[in-house]
Amino acid sequence: MIGGGIGGVATALALHREGFYPVVYERVKELKEVGAGIALWANATHVLKNLDLLEEAKEVGVITTNYQFNSQNGKELVNVPVNGFELPTIGIHRADLHELLWRRLPEKQFILGETFERFSLSENRVCAHFTSGLMVEGDAFIGADGLRSKVRSELFGEQPPIYRNFTTWRGLTNHVPDTYHPGYIREFLGRGKGFGFMMLGKGRMYWYAAALAPENQADAPIGRKKELENMFQDWFDSIPELIAATDETDIIKTDLYDRVPALPWSKQNITLLGDAAHPTLPTLGQGACMALEDALVVTKCLLEYSSPATAFQNYESQRFSRTKSIVEQSLRSGRMGQLAHPITVKLRETLMKLMKPAIANSFKTIHAYRA
Ligand SMILES: Cc1cc2nc3c(=O)[nH]c(=O)nc-3n(C[C@H](O)[C@H](O)[C@H](O)COP(=O)(O)OP(=O)(O)OC[C@H]3O[C@@H](n4cnc5c(N)ncnc54)[C@H](O)[C@@H]3O)c2cc1C
User: Fold this and answer.
1) Cα–ligand 1 centroid distance for 292 (angstroms)
2) Which of 11, 30, 32, 38 has most ligand 1 atoms within 8 Å of CB, for mutation?
3) Lesser CB count within 10 Å: N end or C end of the chain?
4) Hey, where are the domains in the chain?
Protein backbone atom coordinates (compact mmCIF):
# COMPACT_ATOMS: atom_id res chain seq x y z
CA MET A 1 0.00 0.00 0.00
CA ILE A 2 1.52 3.36 -1.03
CA GLY A 3 0.01 6.08 1.21
CA GLY A 4 -1.33 5.75 4.73
CA GLY A 5 -4.27 8.19 4.68
CA ILE A 6 -7.81 7.08 5.48
CA GLY A 7 -8.08 5.01 2.26
CA GLY A 8 -4.70 3.29 2.63
CA VAL A 9 -5.04 2.31 6.28
CA ALA A 10 -8.69 1.22 5.91
CA THR A 11 -7.69 -1.05 3.03
CA ALA A 12 -4.69 -2.43 4.89
CA LEU A 13 -6.92 -3.17 7.88
CA ALA A 14 -9.60 -4.85 5.76
CA LEU A 15 -6.93 -7.01 4.08
CA HIS A 16 -5.18 -7.81 7.35
CA ARG A 17 -8.48 -9.03 8.86
CA GLU A 18 -8.88 -11.43 5.93
CA GLY A 19 -5.43 -12.95 6.41
CA PHE A 20 -3.45 -11.00 3.80
CA TYR A 21 -0.15 -9.37 4.72
CA PRO A 22 -0.46 -5.72 3.66
CA VAL A 23 2.33 -3.23 4.39
CA VAL A 24 1.64 0.51 4.25
CA TYR A 25 4.43 2.89 3.17
CA GLU A 26 3.61 6.47 4.17
CA ARG A 27 5.81 9.47 3.38
CA VAL A 28 5.17 11.50 6.55
CA LYS A 29 7.43 10.75 9.48
CA GLU A 30 4.80 11.51 12.08
CA LEU A 31 1.04 10.95 11.89
CA LYS A 32 -0.95 14.13 12.11
CA GLU A 33 -4.20 14.23 10.13
CA VAL A 34 -5.35 17.81 9.59
CA GLY A 35 -7.52 19.42 12.28
CA ALA A 36 -10.81 19.10 10.53
CA GLY A 37 -14.00 17.10 10.59
CA ILE A 38 -15.61 14.57 8.37
CA ALA A 39 -19.19 13.37 7.99
CA LEU A 40 -19.42 9.59 7.74
CA TRP A 41 -22.76 8.81 6.14
CA ALA A 42 -24.48 5.39 6.33
CA ASN A 43 -22.55 4.18 3.25
CA ALA A 44 -19.32 4.74 5.22
CA THR A 45 -20.50 3.64 8.68
CA HIS A 46 -21.39 0.34 6.96
CA VAL A 47 -17.65 -0.06 6.27
CA LEU A 48 -16.77 0.75 9.88
CA LYS A 49 -19.30 -1.84 11.02
CA ASN A 50 -17.61 -4.42 8.80
CA LEU A 51 -14.27 -3.52 10.35
CA ASP A 52 -15.78 -3.79 13.87
CA LEU A 53 -15.11 -0.11 14.50
CA LEU A 54 -18.61 1.34 14.53
CA GLU A 55 -19.12 1.38 18.30
CA GLU A 56 -15.79 3.12 18.88
CA ALA A 57 -16.50 5.62 16.11
CA LYS A 58 -19.81 6.44 17.83
CA GLU A 59 -17.93 7.01 21.09
CA VAL A 60 -15.37 9.43 19.66
CA GLY A 61 -17.77 11.06 17.19
CA VAL A 62 -21.29 12.46 17.33
CA ILE A 63 -24.49 11.16 15.77
CA THR A 64 -25.73 13.46 12.99
CA THR A 65 -29.44 13.53 12.16
CA ASN A 66 -30.07 16.37 9.69
CA TYR A 67 -28.41 18.22 6.84
CA GLN A 68 -29.94 21.68 6.71
CA PHE A 69 -29.36 24.20 3.91
CA ASN A 70 -30.04 27.87 4.67
CA SER A 71 -29.76 31.25 3.03
CA GLN A 72 -26.82 33.35 4.23
CA ASN A 73 -28.96 35.00 6.89
CA GLY A 74 -30.21 31.70 8.28
CA LYS A 75 -33.55 31.16 6.53
CA GLU A 76 -34.08 27.40 6.11
CA LEU A 77 -34.23 26.28 2.45
CA VAL A 78 -34.09 22.49 2.74
CA ASN A 79 -33.80 20.17 5.72
CA VAL A 80 -32.80 16.61 4.86
CA PRO A 81 -33.00 13.90 7.56
CA VAL A 82 -29.92 11.68 7.31
CA ASN A 83 -30.85 9.24 10.07
CA GLY A 84 -33.35 7.08 8.19
CA PHE A 85 -31.04 4.08 7.73
CA GLU A 86 -30.15 1.00 9.78
CA LEU A 87 -26.77 2.67 10.31
CA PRO A 88 -25.98 6.10 11.78
CA THR A 89 -24.33 9.16 10.28
CA ILE A 90 -21.38 10.27 12.41
CA GLY A 91 -19.51 13.57 12.62
CA ILE A 92 -15.92 12.75 13.54
CA HIS A 93 -12.50 14.41 13.71
CA ARG A 94 -10.28 13.15 10.87
CA ALA A 95 -7.47 12.31 13.26
CA ASP A 96 -9.84 10.23 15.44
CA LEU A 97 -11.06 8.25 12.42
CA HIS A 98 -7.51 7.76 11.15
CA GLU A 99 -6.33 6.59 14.57
CA LEU A 100 -9.20 4.09 14.91
CA LEU A 101 -7.97 2.51 11.69
CA TRP A 102 -4.17 2.53 12.04
CA ARG A 103 -4.13 1.44 15.69
CA ARG A 104 -5.55 -1.92 14.57
CA LEU A 105 -2.66 -2.55 12.19
CA PRO A 106 0.44 -4.35 13.45
CA GLU A 107 3.16 -1.71 13.88
CA LYS A 108 5.58 -3.41 11.52
CA GLN A 109 2.98 -3.20 8.75
CA PHE A 110 2.74 0.61 8.88
CA ILE A 111 6.03 2.17 7.84
CA LEU A 112 6.41 5.93 8.14
CA GLY A 113 8.90 8.24 6.42
CA GLU A 114 9.08 6.35 3.09
CA THR A 115 8.27 8.30 -0.08
CA PHE A 116 7.40 6.23 -3.14
CA GLU A 117 9.28 7.26 -6.27
CA ARG A 118 8.78 4.75 -9.11
CA PHE A 119 8.08 1.16 -10.12
CA SER A 120 10.25 -1.20 -12.09
CA LEU A 121 8.34 -3.93 -13.91
CA SER A 122 9.73 -7.23 -15.09
CA GLU A 123 7.62 -10.20 -16.18
CA ASN A 124 5.04 -10.56 -13.41
CA ARG A 125 7.11 -8.98 -10.66
CA VAL A 126 6.79 -5.36 -9.63
CA CYS A 127 9.28 -3.54 -7.47
CA ALA A 128 8.50 -0.23 -5.77
CA HIS A 129 11.40 2.16 -5.28
CA PHE A 130 11.42 4.80 -2.57
CA THR A 131 13.45 8.01 -2.36
CA SER A 132 15.40 6.56 0.59
CA GLY A 133 16.77 3.82 -1.68
CA LEU A 134 14.40 1.21 -0.22
CA MET A 135 13.12 -1.31 -2.79
CA VAL A 136 10.07 -3.47 -2.11
CA GLU A 137 8.75 -6.40 -4.12
CA GLY A 138 5.18 -7.48 -3.60
CA ASP A 139 2.41 -9.62 -5.06
CA ALA A 140 0.26 -6.53 -5.54
CA PHE A 141 0.51 -2.74 -5.06
CA ILE A 142 -2.24 -0.27 -4.26
CA GLY A 143 -1.65 3.44 -4.76
CA ALA A 144 -3.63 5.20 -2.04
CA ASP A 145 -1.43 8.26 -2.25
CA GLY A 146 -4.06 10.94 -2.68
CA LEU A 147 -4.95 13.73 -5.08
CA ARG A 148 -1.48 14.13 -6.65
CA SER A 149 -0.76 10.40 -6.69
CA LYS A 150 2.75 9.50 -7.81
CA VAL A 151 1.59 5.92 -8.39
CA ARG A 152 -1.01 7.27 -10.81
CA SER A 153 1.49 9.37 -12.76
CA GLU A 154 3.94 6.44 -12.88
CA LEU A 155 1.20 4.20 -14.34
CA PHE A 156 -0.60 6.57 -16.67
CA GLY A 157 1.59 9.68 -17.10
CA GLU A 158 1.48 13.10 -15.51
CA GLN A 159 -2.02 14.66 -15.63
CA PRO A 160 -2.54 17.45 -13.12
CA PRO A 161 -5.90 17.55 -11.26
CA ILE A 162 -8.38 20.28 -12.25
CA TYR A 163 -8.77 23.36 -10.08
CA ARG A 164 -12.50 24.14 -9.73
CA ASN A 165 -12.19 27.84 -8.83
CA PHE A 166 -13.10 27.28 -5.22
CA THR A 167 -10.97 27.55 -2.13
CA THR A 168 -11.96 26.39 1.36
CA TRP A 169 -11.08 27.19 4.92
CA ARG A 170 -11.63 24.69 7.73
CA GLY A 171 -11.62 25.54 11.44
CA LEU A 172 -12.04 23.84 14.78
CA THR A 173 -13.17 25.42 18.05
CA ASN A 174 -14.66 24.42 21.38
CA HIS A 175 -17.22 27.22 21.14
CA VAL A 176 -20.77 25.99 20.51
CA PRO A 177 -23.12 28.79 19.37
CA ASP A 178 -26.45 29.12 21.27
CA THR A 179 -28.32 28.64 17.98
CA TYR A 180 -26.75 25.22 17.38
CA HIS A 181 -29.29 22.41 16.86
CA PRO A 182 -27.80 19.14 18.21
CA GLY A 183 -27.34 16.60 15.41
CA TYR A 184 -27.47 19.19 12.62
CA ILE A 185 -25.04 19.98 9.84
CA ARG A 186 -25.99 23.57 9.07
CA GLU A 187 -24.91 24.94 5.72
CA PHE A 188 -25.40 28.53 4.50
CA LEU A 189 -25.30 29.55 0.85
CA GLY A 190 -24.58 33.09 -0.31
CA ARG A 191 -23.19 34.90 -3.35
CA GLY A 192 -20.17 32.86 -4.51
CA LYS A 193 -19.52 31.88 -0.90
CA GLY A 194 -20.75 29.28 1.55
CA PHE A 195 -20.31 28.33 5.19
CA GLY A 196 -21.19 25.23 7.21
CA PHE A 197 -20.73 23.83 10.68
CA MET A 198 -21.27 20.59 12.52
CA MET A 199 -20.43 19.06 15.86
CA LEU A 200 -17.65 16.47 16.17
CA GLY A 201 -17.00 14.33 19.23
CA LYS A 202 -15.32 15.61 22.41
CA GLY A 203 -17.27 18.89 22.38
CA ARG A 204 -15.56 20.26 19.28
CA MET A 205 -17.28 22.33 16.63
CA TYR A 206 -16.01 22.02 13.06
CA TRP A 207 -16.74 24.72 10.49
CA TYR A 208 -15.91 25.13 6.83
CA ALA A 209 -16.12 28.04 4.43
CA ALA A 210 -15.78 28.12 0.65
CA ALA A 211 -15.42 30.96 -1.84
CA LEU A 212 -14.62 31.60 -5.47
CA ALA A 213 -10.89 32.36 -5.71
CA PRO A 214 -7.96 32.08 -8.12
CA GLU A 215 -5.70 29.07 -7.59
CA ASN A 216 -2.98 29.42 -4.92
CA GLN A 217 -4.25 32.81 -3.76
CA ALA A 218 -2.18 34.04 -0.83
CA ASP A 219 -3.82 35.09 2.44
CA ALA A 220 -4.84 38.76 2.59
CA PRO A 221 -2.24 40.99 4.33
CA ILE A 222 -4.68 41.38 7.27
CA GLY A 223 -4.36 37.63 7.92
CA ARG A 224 -6.52 34.57 7.30
CA LYS A 225 -8.87 34.98 10.26
CA LYS A 226 -9.55 38.70 9.76
CA GLU A 227 -10.14 38.09 6.05
CA LEU A 228 -12.80 35.47 6.90
CA GLU A 229 -14.36 37.72 9.54
CA ASN A 230 -14.72 40.43 6.89
CA MET A 231 -16.08 38.00 4.28
CA PHE A 232 -18.83 36.70 6.57
CA GLN A 233 -19.46 39.69 8.87
CA ASP A 234 -23.08 40.24 7.79
CA TRP A 235 -24.04 36.51 7.64
CA PHE A 236 -26.08 34.51 10.15
CA ASP A 237 -24.86 35.49 13.69
CA SER A 238 -23.29 32.13 14.60
CA ILE A 239 -20.91 32.35 11.61
CA PRO A 240 -18.83 35.41 12.61
CA GLU A 241 -19.09 34.10 16.18
CA LEU A 242 -17.48 30.77 15.21
CA ILE A 243 -14.71 32.42 13.21
CA ALA A 244 -13.96 34.80 16.10
CA ALA A 245 -13.79 31.85 18.53
CA THR A 246 -11.17 30.00 16.42
CA ASP A 247 -7.40 30.42 16.76
CA GLU A 248 -5.85 31.57 13.50
CA THR A 249 -3.45 28.60 13.69
CA ASP A 250 -6.47 26.24 13.67
CA ILE A 251 -7.70 27.52 10.30
CA ILE A 252 -6.55 25.46 7.28
CA LYS A 253 -6.89 26.75 3.72
CA THR A 254 -7.18 24.29 0.81
CA ASP A 255 -7.84 24.81 -2.91
CA LEU A 256 -10.37 22.36 -4.36
CA TYR A 257 -9.60 19.99 -7.22
CA ASP A 258 -11.00 16.90 -8.88
CA ARG A 259 -10.38 14.86 -12.03
CA VAL A 260 -12.69 13.88 -14.86
CA PRO A 261 -13.64 10.26 -13.98
CA ALA A 262 -11.84 7.81 -16.24
CA LEU A 263 -10.60 4.22 -16.32
CA PRO A 264 -8.24 2.41 -16.16
CA TRP A 265 -7.09 2.61 -12.55
CA SER A 266 -5.08 -0.61 -12.79
CA LYS A 267 -2.09 -2.00 -14.70
CA GLN A 268 -0.94 -5.58 -14.07
CA ASN A 269 -0.97 -6.08 -10.32
CA ILE A 270 -1.07 -2.37 -9.43
CA THR A 271 -4.21 -0.34 -8.81
CA LEU A 272 -5.37 3.01 -7.41
CA LEU A 273 -7.77 3.72 -4.56
CA GLY A 274 -9.41 6.71 -2.85
CA ASP A 275 -8.40 10.18 -4.06
CA ALA A 276 -5.63 8.67 -6.19
CA ALA A 277 -8.36 6.99 -8.30
CA HIS A 278 -11.34 9.37 -8.07
CA PRO A 279 -10.68 12.72 -6.37
CA THR A 280 -13.86 14.72 -5.89
CA LEU A 281 -15.00 18.12 -4.66
CA PRO A 282 -16.10 17.87 -1.02
CA THR A 283 -19.57 19.35 -1.67
CA LEU A 284 -21.32 16.05 -0.87
CA GLY A 285 -18.75 15.07 1.78
CA GLN A 286 -18.06 11.73 0.09
CA GLY A 287 -14.29 11.62 -0.68
CA ALA A 288 -13.19 9.70 2.41
CA CYS A 289 -16.45 7.73 2.45
CA MET A 290 -15.73 6.46 -1.09
CA ALA A 291 -12.17 5.56 -0.06
CA LEU A 292 -13.68 3.44 2.76
CA GLU A 293 -16.04 1.75 0.28
CA ASP A 294 -13.07 1.02 -2.03
CA ALA A 295 -11.29 -0.67 0.89
CA LEU A 296 -14.05 -3.27 1.28
CA VAL A 297 -14.58 -3.87 -2.42
CA VAL A 298 -10.90 -4.32 -3.29
CA THR A 299 -10.54 -6.74 -0.36
CA LYS A 300 -13.55 -8.78 -1.53
CA CYS A 301 -12.09 -8.93 -5.06
CA LEU A 302 -8.67 -10.05 -3.80
CA LEU A 303 -10.41 -12.78 -1.79
CA GLU A 304 -12.42 -13.90 -4.78
CA TYR A 305 -9.68 -13.97 -7.46
CA SER A 306 -6.28 -15.50 -6.86
CA SER A 307 -4.67 -13.31 -9.52
CA PRO A 308 -4.29 -9.71 -8.26
CA ALA A 309 -4.48 -8.43 -11.85
CA THR A 310 -7.93 -10.05 -12.31
CA ALA A 311 -9.02 -8.90 -8.84
CA PHE A 312 -8.07 -5.30 -9.71
CA GLN A 313 -9.93 -5.45 -13.05
CA ASN A 314 -13.05 -6.53 -11.17
CA TYR A 315 -12.53 -3.96 -8.43
CA GLU A 316 -12.32 -1.05 -10.86
CA SER A 317 -15.31 -2.20 -12.88
CA GLN A 318 -17.40 -2.59 -9.70
CA ARG A 319 -16.39 0.85 -8.40
CA PHE A 320 -16.28 3.04 -11.49
CA SER A 321 -19.93 3.98 -12.05
CA ARG A 322 -20.56 4.66 -8.35
CA THR A 323 -17.51 6.93 -7.97
CA LYS A 324 -18.07 8.63 -11.35
CA SER A 325 -21.61 9.54 -10.39
CA ILE A 326 -20.52 11.03 -7.05
CA VAL A 327 -17.63 13.00 -8.59
CA GLU A 328 -20.02 14.44 -11.20
CA GLN A 329 -22.78 15.23 -8.70
CA SER A 330 -20.24 16.89 -6.40
CA LEU A 331 -19.08 19.08 -9.28
CA ARG A 332 -22.69 20.04 -10.12
CA SER A 333 -23.43 21.02 -6.52
CA GLY A 334 -20.13 22.88 -6.42
CA ARG A 335 -21.28 24.91 -9.44
CA MET A 336 -24.61 25.68 -7.72
CA GLY A 337 -22.63 26.93 -4.74
CA GLN A 338 -20.55 29.20 -6.98
CA LEU A 339 -23.52 31.25 -8.22
CA ALA A 340 -22.76 34.84 -7.33
CA HIS A 341 -25.27 37.13 -9.04
CA PRO A 342 -28.11 38.24 -6.70
CA ILE A 343 -30.78 37.11 -9.20
CA THR A 344 -29.32 33.63 -9.69
CA VAL A 345 -28.86 33.29 -5.91
CA LYS A 346 -32.56 34.14 -5.38
CA LEU A 347 -33.52 31.66 -8.09
CA ARG A 348 -31.37 28.99 -6.44
CA GLU A 349 -33.15 29.57 -3.12
CA THR A 350 -36.59 29.22 -4.74
CA LEU A 351 -35.48 26.16 -6.71
CA MET A 352 -34.01 24.45 -3.65
CA LYS A 353 -37.26 24.86 -1.72
CA LEU A 354 -39.24 23.46 -4.66
CA MET A 355 -36.81 20.59 -5.15
CA LYS A 356 -36.67 19.46 -1.54
CA PRO A 357 -37.96 15.91 -2.28
CA ALA A 358 -35.50 15.51 -5.17
CA ILE A 359 -32.58 16.74 -3.03
CA ALA A 360 -33.57 14.41 -0.17
CA ASN A 361 -33.85 11.53 -2.64
CA SER A 362 -30.45 12.07 -4.16
CA PHE A 363 -28.84 12.07 -0.69
CA LYS A 364 -30.77 8.92 0.15
CA THR A 365 -29.54 7.14 -2.99
CA ILE A 366 -25.91 8.00 -2.24
CA HIS A 367 -26.16 6.97 1.42
CA ALA A 368 -28.06 3.74 0.69
CA TYR A 369 -25.10 2.12 -1.11
CA ARG A 370 -23.52 -0.80 0.77
CA ALA A 371 -20.05 -1.90 -0.38
C1 LIG B 1 -12.15 20.82 2.36
C2 LIG B 1 -12.37 19.34 2.34
C3 LIG B 1 -13.41 18.77 3.06
C4 LIG B 1 -13.66 17.38 3.01
N5 LIG B 1 -14.71 16.86 3.70
C6 LIG B 1 -14.99 15.53 3.59
C7 LIG B 1 -16.11 14.95 4.30
O8 LIG B 1 -16.84 15.60 5.07
N9 LIG B 1 -16.37 13.61 4.12
C10 LIG B 1 -15.58 12.86 3.31
O11 LIG B 1 -15.87 11.65 3.17
N12 LIG B 1 -14.52 13.37 2.65
C13 LIG B 1 -14.21 14.68 2.77
N14 LIG B 1 -13.14 15.20 2.10
C15 LIG B 1 -12.34 14.34 1.19
C16 LIG B 1 -11.33 13.51 1.93
O17 LIG B 1 -10.49 14.35 2.69
C18 LIG B 1 -10.49 12.70 0.95
O19 LIG B 1 -11.29 12.16 -0.05
C20 LIG B 1 -9.79 11.57 1.68
O21 LIG B 1 -8.90 12.09 2.63
C22 LIG B 1 -9.04 10.70 0.68
O23 LIG B 1 -8.30 9.72 1.39
P24 LIG B 1 -7.08 9.01 0.68
O25 LIG B 1 -6.54 8.08 1.70
O26 LIG B 1 -7.47 8.51 -0.65
O27 LIG B 1 -6.03 10.18 0.40
P28 LIG B 1 -5.25 11.11 1.41
O29 LIG B 1 -6.03 11.38 2.64
O30 LIG B 1 -4.79 12.29 0.62
O31 LIG B 1 -4.00 10.25 1.84
C32 LIG B 1 -2.93 10.01 0.95
C33 LIG B 1 -1.71 9.63 1.78
O34 LIG B 1 -0.65 9.25 0.91
C35 LIG B 1 0.56 9.83 1.35
N36 LIG B 1 1.44 9.97 0.18
C37 LIG B 1 1.29 10.81 -0.87
N38 LIG B 1 2.28 10.64 -1.75
C39 LIG B 1 3.07 9.64 -1.26
C40 LIG B 1 4.25 9.01 -1.73
N41 LIG B 1 4.83 9.37 -2.89
N42 LIG B 1 4.80 8.01 -0.98
C43 LIG B 1 4.22 7.62 0.21
N44 LIG B 1 3.10 8.22 0.70
C45 LIG B 1 2.54 9.20 -0.03
C46 LIG B 1 0.12 11.17 1.95
O47 LIG B 1 1.08 11.67 2.86
C48 LIG B 1 -1.19 10.78 2.62
O49 LIG B 1 -1.02 10.36 3.95
C50 LIG B 1 -12.83 16.56 2.19
C51 LIG B 1 -11.77 17.13 1.47
C52 LIG B 1 -11.52 18.50 1.56
C53 LIG B 1 -10.37 19.09 0.77
Assistant:
1) 11
2) 38
3) C
4) 6-162+258-368
Q: How far is the CA of 290 from the centre of ligand 1 (A)?
A: 11
The superfamily in CATH containing domain 6-162+258-368 is FAD/NAD(P)-binding domain (3.50.50.60)
Burial class for 5, CB neighbours closer than 10 Å (0-12, 13-18, 19+) = buried
The residue whose CA is least distant from atom 2 of ligand 1 is 282
- Locate all alpha helices (DSSP H) within 141-223, ordered by sequence: 150-156
Say whether 153 sits in a helix, a strand or coil.
Answer: helix
Strand, helix or coil for residue 244: helix
Using most ligand atoms within 8 A of CB, pick from 2, 93, 145 the residue to mutate for ligand 1.
145
Ligand 1: residues whose CB is within 6 Å?
Answer: 2-8, 25-28, 38-39, 115-116, 144-147, 150, 168, 170, 254, 274-276, 282, 285-289, 291
Inter-axis angle of helices 287-304 and 308-338, nearest 10: 170
At a CB cut-off of 8 Å and minimum separation 6, what does 96 contact? 60, 61, 200, 201
Summarize pLDDT for 280-317 with one digit per residue, the tens. 999 999 999 999 999 999 999 999 999 999 999 999 99
- Distance from Cα 341 to the centre of ligand 1, integer Å: 33
Model pTM above 0.85: yes
The answer to whether 369 touches 322, Cβ cutoff 8 Å, is yes
Burial class (CB in 10 A: 0-12, 13-18, 19+), 270: buried
For 56-94, what is each residue's pLDDT tens digit?
Answer: 999 999 999 999 999 999 999 999 999 999 999 999 999
